[in-house]
Amino acid sequence: MSLHSAAPHTDATASQAAVTQTRDWLIASAAAVVALIALYAVFMDNGSLISATGDYLHEFAHDGRHLFGAPCH
């Protein structure tokens, strides 16, 4: 009787693990890109990107700048 009762490592399980790891990296990369775009809109945009959406989003970003301590005036 073997001390290890785990199933043997097969190519199918290794392949599934690689797919899962790749998917996780893609999701994390997409989240990082979205976060960087949001930070750009709040800190560096100065109204040119978000002014087309109306005053509500502009004021929200303006308040976010004050919240993070970024200069905006």
In this structure, how is the largest beta sheet organized?
none
Radius of gyration: 23 Å
* Mean pLDDT, all residues: 75
User: How far apart are the first and last residues' alpha carbons, in Å?
Assistant: 75 Å
Order of helices and strands: HH
β-sheet strand percentage: under 5%
Number of strands: 0
Q: Estimate the global geometry from the Cα principal axes.
A: rod-shaped
Instruction: State the helix count.
Output: 2
* Contiguous runs where pLDDT drops below 50 for at least 5 residues: none
What is the structural class?
mainly alpha
Helicity range of the residues?
Answer: 55-70%
Question: Any descriptors?
Answer:
mainly alpha, 2 helices, 73 residues, rod-shaped
Short description, anyone?
The chain is mainly alpha-helical. It contains two helices and no strands.
3D structure, described in words:
The chain is mostly helical and 73 residues long. Helix content is 64%, strand content 0%. It contains two helices and no strands. It has helices at 11-43, 55-68. The model has no long low-confidence stretch (mean pLDDT 75).
Question: What's the arrangement of secondary structure elements?
Answer:
Layout: H1 11-43, H2 55-68
